[in-house]
Amino acid sequence: MGDIRYVCLSDMHFGADNSILTRLNATDGSVDPMHPSDVLIHLANCLRHLINNNSGDRLPTLILNGDILDLAFSTENVAAMAFRHFLELTMPEDPTARLFDPQIVFIPGNHDHHLWETCRERQYADCLSSADWSTPLPRPPHITPMREPDGVPSYFVNAIAHSLPWLADVKIKTVYPNYAITSGDKLIVVSHGHFIEDAYLMVSEFADLLYSKTTPPETMEAWEAQNFAWIDFVWSVLGRSGHIGVDEENVYNTENSPKAIGSLLGSAARNLVLKKGGATGKTLAKGVGEMVGALVTDYFERGQTDTLLSDDGAGVKRFMQVPVQEQIRSEFGETAPSNVALVFGHTHKPFEAIMPLEHFFAPSFAAYNSGGWVVDSPEVKPLIGGAIVLIDDDANLASLRMYNECDDTSDYRVSVQIAETTDDADNPLFSQLSKSIDPQNWPWSDFSKAAAVAVKQHNTRLASFLKNAGDTS
Hints:
Blueprint: E1 4-9, E2 22-24, E3 31-36, H1 38-52, E4 61-64, H2 76-90, E5 103-106, H3 113-128, E6 152-153, H4 155-162, E7 171-174, E8 178-183, E9 186-191, H5 202-210, H6 220-237, H7 242-255, H8 259-276, H9 278-297, H10 314-332, E10 339-344, E11 351-356, E12 364-369, E13 385-392, E14 397-404, E15 415-417, H11 428-436, H12 444-472
Parallel strand pairs: 1-4, 4-5, 5-7, 9-10, 10-12
Antiparallel strand pairs: 1-13, 2-3, 6-7, 8-9, 11-12, 13-14, 14-15
């Protein structure tokens, strides 16, 4: 009991120059895609230590919970090389040294959403050869089942894995946007988390403003079907679009917050209406620009660095109450487990909490956020950090808090965390981890030192960028 069965990582942002898992050149701070970062090397050592402490021989399943490859502020080639380093370190040529089961689960986020679109379209195209063309074809689905999904092979991500000849048997199956893990009366929903924010429901919000009789989407399929093109364009495509992508990243960095994207898009909408709208456009332009900007930026969680969740977690609760609850009921029916947890990332602010929830089939749920591995600000933000969420065979949860940004480098320390009201005695996973992890010794202490150096390096790099931007403005 207590062996690690699932390892959940999110928001690694491989390829992005603000990720501490992407190596930077010491001379000019540019991305060095040919070598792994020091933090990534030490992270792999920590994962190896964890998994070697399992009592059984069964390797845990790796769940890559979104924003693994950064396709907004990187390009496919750079992101692919950075991700390949991760596979080399955790799934080496020696079969006895591999850390994960060859069946890997990938749940795309907003920054790698385009990989889901390529999976979805390929899956539908493959079905056409055996389709009954004498009747109308069904629409291609926008989501996969959460319960025991077959998954969809990701040609791109699997190609990266198979570029390492010894990983020919590795299969990375794509599930989107939710993946269910069950044991007894326990249900864990794993999802990247972008749908907790209004910004990723912009098309639905826009339709509601335009057409007062529009019914808000209530299913997971409808949430994705209405908003997928918007998510794909802004967070998975625009950042790779030549100079437009460079400008988008510069705006993002200059404002130190994702809110800057809302300002950028609001200005674009205003200028478009002003230019193309004739006399009417001159009247509407300002209002349209403000509306678009507000829809995108009102509750950007990554911009709220002084609180773990804005508005008392209203976005997370809405996500659970509406589309997740509908998906659970449609797939589990009356057999839905009553003990529910949500594992998500996206906000880059790791935490563990029991959250009360009204109008839900359970009175509360455990929320585990796996944080992120990027530095968005020239100043230290103590709520920002990275974690590994771990799950055992009995669906017990524990969070291995790898780091939070700190002013004092000596304060970087790995710790084991569980939701506050969880009884430690009832969680053998937590007990096992607490015994096996000594933050003062290798490999944990070495990881902490590397993380402290990397965060400081990125703080300094971004401060230099902002200073240069200010000098030329």
